[in-house]
Amino acid sequence: MRKTFLTITALALVAFGATACVSKSEYTKAVESAEVRYNALEAQNARLKADLADAGKRNEQLTADQAQLERTLALKSGELGKSIVDLRQRVNALEGDNTRLTRELSEATKAREEKLREVSSTYEQLVKKMKNEIDKGQVTISELKGKLTVNMVEAILFDSGKAEVKQEGLVVLGKVIEILKTVNDKSIRIEGHTDNKPIVAPLTQRYPTNWELSAARSINVARYLQKQGIEPAKLSAAAFGEFKSVADNATSEGRAKNRRIEIVLVPKE
User: Dihedrals φ, ψ of 183, to 5°?
Assistant: First the structure.
């Protein structure tokens, strides 16, 4: 590089000498100026070489990064494709479940509506059949959320302190039985209820408490329904004694309402 600098300087001086005589001082200045420019060019060249080397390294790193990115993208693309397939399968499965559940819900709704219509029909038949007893306040019929209850006061079915259904009571039960025979999708629960007056002698030997009296009455009604052709598998008897009152036991009217038999139609278990 130094040789190149001297050659350049010599050529410059020859050219300069061709036009005029050069003093020693001017010659020195020209050499120094040329050397300064040469050093600047040398430094600039070194910087450019360094920049070129750095650019090459950066290019290599960018090439490596690009390759890694492409591999990563290919991997992610494959994973994403698999995820999309999985999601589509799940969506299809969910759509199938939704279709099935919608169909089942529709069928269940129709079945429930049909059962409600049957209960309502039974209710209307009972009300029509027992209009006379209802008007006398001996029977009440209620329907709530698919549950139908025929409430009969004690006096229409039993003599005081007795559990055997009297003849007039059998006539009333006959009206209920005629309609109950048409009910196929319900269970029939016979519930016995009393007021809170304790059993007194000599009845205590047979019915120590109101539990026993209410149980005997509900069982006798259930047995009579069975004898009249009601399927026994549909029947059950329950005794509540005085513990499920519907009126105030402090009055004779309230106690009369509490002494009752309820025939309840409930969904089969």
Answer: -90, 120
